Amino acid sequence: MLSILPVRGVPEVRAGHDLAALVAARARLLDGDVVVVAQKVVSKAEGALAWPAPGEDRATARRRLAREQAVRVVADSPDALIVETRHGLVCANAGIDASNVPDGALLVLPEDPDGSARALRASLRRASGSDVAVVVADSFGRPWRTGMTDIAIGVAGLRPIRDERGSPDRQGAALEVTRTAVADELAAAADLVRRKADGVPVVVVRGFPYERDERAGADLLQRPPAEDLFRRGRGGVADALSGRAPAADAALDPRAPDRVDLDRVAAAARQVGGPGVQVSVGGGALFVTGGALDAGVAAGAAIAALADLGYAATRRAPQPGEQAATVVVRPGSNR
Amino acid sequence: MLSILPVRGVPEVRAGHDLAALVAARARLLDGDVVVVAQKVVSKAEGALAWPAPGEDRATARRRLAREQAVRVVADSPDALIVETRHGLVCANAGIDASNVPDGALLVLPEDPDGSARALRASLRRASGSDVAVVVADSFGRPWRTGMTDIAIGVAGLRPIRDERGSPDRQGAALEVTRTAVADELAAAADLVRRKADGVPVVVVRGFPYERDERAGADLLQRPPAEDLFRRGRGGVADALSGRAPAADAALDPRAPDRVDLDRVAAAARQVGGPGVQVSVGGGALFVTGGALDAGVAAGAAIAALADLGYAATRRAPQPGEQAATVVVRPGSNR
Q1: Could you tell me the residue ranges of all domains in chain A?
Q2: A interface mutation test: which of B297, B306, B315, B319 has the most A CBs within 10 A?
Q3: Which end of chain B has fewer CB atoms < 10 Å from its terminal CB, N or C?
Q4: At B277, is the secondary structure helix, strand, or coil?
Q5: A237-329: which CATH architecture?
Q6: Which residues of chain B are within 8 Å of residue A77 when distances are taken between CB atoms?
Q7: With a cut of 0.85, is the ipTM above it?
Q8: pLDDT (average), residues B75-101
Q9: Is B40 helix (H, G, I), strand (E, B) or coil?
């Protein structure tokens, strides 16, 4: 049996507050407990605040700061700005909060959530005498599902992934893909005993037999870019142009995302250019010949497909009267 | 306090087994409990099986069946086939399982997971005398995170989303976006007390103050297509071509996904075509003039950008010697 215990009575946290002391005074922690702490109070205790510029409203300031703090814009619509943060998290508004923050400020993510978790774990050990694991939790949206769930953005003392690959199933056959993101499930479970408005930022999960790990962090929960099937354009336009099923077979080899399949792009461009067009591939370039307009159409489609795949592709300036177009791909330009 | 209680000793479930009786004989259920049941045993009890064709291995059969059962291929790579199922779920292999299934069979999703949840809830009421809610849980991957977490694919008796929009925050300001997918969090919490190989398909969550709802189902957890920022190509190539930040501003209005912003596509195409090219928009078409090769390049880029946005765009056949290209968008073709 597992118990999920809200820690009640934690006061409004301000910069410099000792979070471990606030928790230890209100909860009797036991060895093996997992202490799940909302990102908000971690950021508040660390003073991770930002302010709107003079005359700037909070929503505008949040969008501006999210862009500034992003390493990559993943999607941008009037309703949501989804970015990858420098921590590697993909989330709305770079995780910047505007509610439950006093004095008109905005709350940004901790500088190093795994470091915050490790520091809190050490402080809780001193304050309570107990050996606990710590999860820093934040509410994230999901691409295809409504509502948010809490996930782990920082972890200390436990292995965030439970790897059951290789265990036999009950028929003795090897289990296929079974890596469970237990740190995310711990964050979600903790979220069940609080509401955003009720001031229960700390929850204790008791009875979960986690694998101890002194070094693992929540970064293990981030999918490496080479395995990300939803990076912009992957397998998109080249397939759309070639009339294949939507997103059938990625044009980029997922195990070598730096190597674009120029033959695939050439085939797509040839189809758009029409029957009078020839497209050949060599030395990182596409050579297009045919009637000028048709060759141009094929070259333009190739440039677009390559751009969509994240490559910088340019057209070599044609000589006057030339009925050929050369599209040059800058090697490695998709990084 | 919330308790997560594994129901131990449930035998291997076969088609026609009475799941409610198996559970009620092994757990004392109380009014207000949430019974979280793994999809696997629901599918097994319902006999939701499929078999490989003669000579076909299980992995190949699974991929074939997943394609057959999909309403939309979302991503297809050598490592994963991500589809939208007829239920509206976006998941790998249409949720078809090949481990822990006897006799070489494959296990498919229940025909109607919300209906399965409702039926099980009614049976549990009869078998135990207690008024419980039911969640049917399955393990799903996530685009940007490693590992899987359990989510709710079927729900009966509780409202799957807790809507806190409109509640004041602790400073009295309106909370921004706070809709919590509690049914998904219940599924995740339940998953913490079992491993895939240990035969604990049923878990009781006790003490969660859910909102009763006799009609709501897990379909409420599915994001409507118009709000899906990660449908293929949305905001992709047109922005890449126009030199904006990756995916900055969607070219499609998310509130009217059927209306493509042709002006945005025209601006991108003009840039690719070069300074001698003019692109104008009217009546669902782009008109491109300029030197033949340049105009062709612009038209080809426009066709690619529109294809990437999911539109069928074609070139009107040019007259001999014509130095203009017309790109026609078929209205509504992105559906």
Answers
A1: 3-48+110-222, 237-329
A2: B297
A3: C
A4: coil
A5: 3-Layer(aba) Sandwich (3.40)
A6: 229, 235, 249-250, 254
A7: no
A8: 87
A9: helix
Task: Supply the pLDDT for residue A287.
Answer: 85
pLDDT at A258 over 60: no
Second-level CATH architecture of A3-48+110-222:
2-Layer Sandwich (3.30)
Q: Strand runs (DSSP E) across B93-175, as ranges?
A: 106-107, 133-142, 145-158, 162-163
What is the average pLDDT across B279-284? Answer: 80
Contact (CB<8Å) A249/B77: yes
Residues in chain B: 335
Inform me whether the C-beta atom of residue B219 falls under 8 Å from chain A C-beta atoms.
Answer: no
DSSP 3-state assignment of A131?
coil
**CA distance linking residue B110 with residue B87, whole number of Å:** 10
**Using CA atoms, how far apart are residues A201 and A180, in angstroms rounded to an integer?**
25
Q: Which of A17-26, B157-166, B261-270 has the highest mean pLDDT?
A: A17-26
SS3 for A290?
A: coil
Averaged pLDDT, B208-231: 87
- Chain B positions touching A303 (Cβ under 8 A) are 241, 272, 297, 300-301, 304
- CA–CA gap between residue B182 and residue B133 (Å, rounded): 13
- Distance separating the N- and C-terminal Cα atoms of chain B: 47
* Nearest of A242, A226, A243, A244 to residue A234 by alpha carbon: A226
